[in-house]
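Hey team,

Sharing the H repeat-associated protein N-terminal domain-containing protein run so nobody has to redo it. Sequence (68 residues) first:
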Amino acid sequence: MSEVATPRRKSLLEHFSAIKDNRQPCKVMYPLSEVRLLVVCDTMAACDDYDGIILWGNRHLDFLRRLP
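Structure output:
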């Protein structure tokens, strides 16, 4: 199963890497790649608002930090 998941995950991350980060560097707390990964995972986990994303992200922080 991981043989299939790895190319898909890589493709997804490459796809989102085309999005430019227009934020002011002095105001950035988290890299855009981490924010995108969190939102994609949260969406798949049926989180549909800011509070749900924060809760899910905090509960699964160890999992998220293991991802590339």
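DSSP finds four helices and no strands in the chain.

Ping me if you want the raw files.
A.
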